[in-house]
Amino acid sequence: VTRDVRRVHAELVMRGIPVCVFPGQLHPSLPRESFPSAYELADSLLSLPCHQDLSTADMDKVIEIVRSVG
Length: 70
Prior knowledge:
- With 70 residues, the protein is mostly helical.
- It is built from three helices and two strands, in the order H-E-H-E-H.
């Protein structure tokens, strides 16, 4: 979770971390006007690599880089 998704996303990609911006569209039954906090959170999320092929060293690298970007 970050308040500066674009900056953090760009820095992580530049450092070789394949990160995705969480799509800001939530379920259609949740209108933005009625659930502003849910949308604020959704607009602040990045999806980090998380899969069975990541080694411990890979995860350590992701953690190190994410911490350095802030």
